[in-house]
Amino acid sequence: MAADTYDVIIIGGGLHGLSTAIHLAKAGLRAVVVEKDYPGRHASGVNAGGVRRLGRHLAEVPLSVAAREIWENISDFVGDDCGFSACGHIQIAETEAELAQQAERVGQLQAHGFEHEQLIDQAALRDIVPALARHCLGAIWCPDDGAANPYRTTQAYFHTAQALGAVVKLGAAVTAIERTGDAWQVTTAQDRFLAPVLVNTAGAWGHQVCRMIGDDAPVEPAAPMLMITERVAPFITPVLGAVGRKLSFKQYDNGTVMIGGGQRGRAVPEKNLAQTQLAGMGNSAVTVKALFPQLGPVNVVRCWAGIEAVMPDGIPVIGPSEAATGAYHAFGFCGHGFQLSPIVGRLLAELITTGQASLPIEAFAIQRFSGAELGQFGVMD
After folding, report:
1. Cα–Cα distances in Å, from 23 out to 77, 160, 188, 250, 351?
2. Residue 80 falls within a domain, yes or no?
3. pTM score > 0.90 for this model?
4. Does a structural domain hold residue 60?
5. 301 and 228: one domain?
6. Whether residue 155 is found in the same domain as residue 300
């Protein structure tokens, strides 16, 4: 089997892999994206579409702020507005202790020069979410955050990458990766590809690609669940979360409510399978009822799950391989990689073309799992 030659081979055709292909194409490099299923099969498609800076780990904040600038004119990047709406994100506090925790969080961000999160009191919270239960005391409010449509976004990335000259191979599971001289050779059941640069954006399978090139990372596969309710009367505009609850939900223009935020199903990556769990969905429904008691019984009409990669410190791996020359990683986004996708692709393209990223990515180095200190960055989400 003769090998097809490219400038870059990207393993994983989700948003981060496709974003990388787009940025590389704009830099004049030709990439092949090798995807075992289809774009959006797991984490890129099975998410709430949150375009948020609110609540991010401190190390992610510079990337998230830069990504939000791209989202403002996302159609300039991928030819589609991706259904993006700056509806705002709000994280409510139900106790004095949670409110104090939020004040500390906002103060920490301000000390680093970030002003996008605002601490608001109970009266301001009522103005933004009048239907909220009366016991809620305040919130962090990020009015310029928002949400987009994951399906439209994934399709826009997919078509833009192809239009710019990237080749996207679907249904192409990688069976072997070898270093041949100064090039990487990647083999699937159908094809063989050769390129001097390899990019691993394989999501929950990212650690498998790592091991094939001599790296290692402690990935935990997870299956976040989402559900959609029947239509109800309008009661909320922003995306809402809570400090002390696993919750994220948004009401769409048609009245349906998307509920997610951390409840997990069963991930079986070796079978490419994610299963919903009724108990977790029940917990989400109870949480919504506690915060919006006037809703009454609401029927769930659809639920689903997908597989994503979770890292032990809550932040992704982004950057060069520790063990291999000409290899780069971007995986393990722990359920909050959707918003970051346009900037992560740009950073990877910068590393490949110039050897240096324009934003700080040291905290995301894969070396942190080989005995290096994790440093100052604790989990803040």
Report:
1. 9, 10, 25, 31, 11
2. no
3. yes
4. no
5. yes
6. no
